[in-house]
Design goal:
Length: 215
């Protein structure tokens, strides 16, 4: 599955997936430059679920735990191909996990909407935008125009410091995904968890909250 989009394809980001290129590199180099997010190593891919529960409990409980089908797909992506004939060739996956501070910034109304079981279908869609079927490191993202998640394509950029109302500023070596910055990256076996300072799912999904279903 091609998940990283080249700069040439940025103009067609939301119109086509044809500009994607294949990710072939491991994630251990997330920190190849000092200014890039740090990488913390874990033992096995089976620790991803526990890691999210422990380090990102609000995100896990309100969003990721709601999408059982997504977890089935992620399990296939992380399975050892030699033992599981249904495993994907990428043998790993990526999670963009907003930290608790980022979740708190959503405000009481949105947090309550995520708690409301009427909004489960929307929460499932939000979860899908926070997972990628292949392991993708921050260093791979930084030179791309976008990444294809289970929910759809999201743009990738370089974070800046300074400036005024989004103008000016200087690149600080960091990476943003749909406007949210990668704080640090954690390798869990062949999988990667990027800690984010915000959600990366489209804002339009909030329009569907408090409805019985998405049409």
């Amino acid at each position: 599955m091609h998940v990283i989009m080249s700069s040439l394809g940025s103009a067609l980001l939301f119109l086509s997936t044809s500009a994607a290129f294949q990710v072939t590199s491991p994630i251990a180099k997330s920190c190849r430059y000092d200014s890039r997010p740090s990488t913390v190593l874990y033992d096995t891919a089976s620790d991803v679920d526990e890691l999210l529960k422990q380090d990102y409990p609000t995100f896990y409980n309100l969003i990721m735990s709601k999408n059982a089908d997504l977890w089935k797909d992620l399990s296939k992506a992380s399975a050892d191909a030699s033992e599981d004939p249904n495993a994907t060739s990428s043998n790993g996956f990526t999670i963009f996990a907003p930290n608790d501070e980022a979740m708190e910034k959503l405000g009481e109304k949105k947090l309550n909407q995520l708690l409301d079981d009427r909004n489960r279908e929307t929460a499932e869609k939000v979860a899908a935008f926070h997972a990628v079927e292949e392991p993708v490191g921050a260093w791979e993202l930084i030179n791309s125009a976008g990444v294809k998640t289970f929910g759809g394509e999201v743009n990738v950029g370089k974070s800046k410091v300074g400036g005024f109302f989004g103008f000016g500023g200087k690149e600080d070596g960091g990476v943003t995904v749909s406007g949210a910055k990668i704080i640090q990256s954690k390798q869990v076996g062949s999988c990667v968890v990027h800690e984010m300072d915000g959600l990366i799912s489209p804002e339009i999904l909030w329009r569907y909250m408090d409805q019985l279903r998405i049409l």
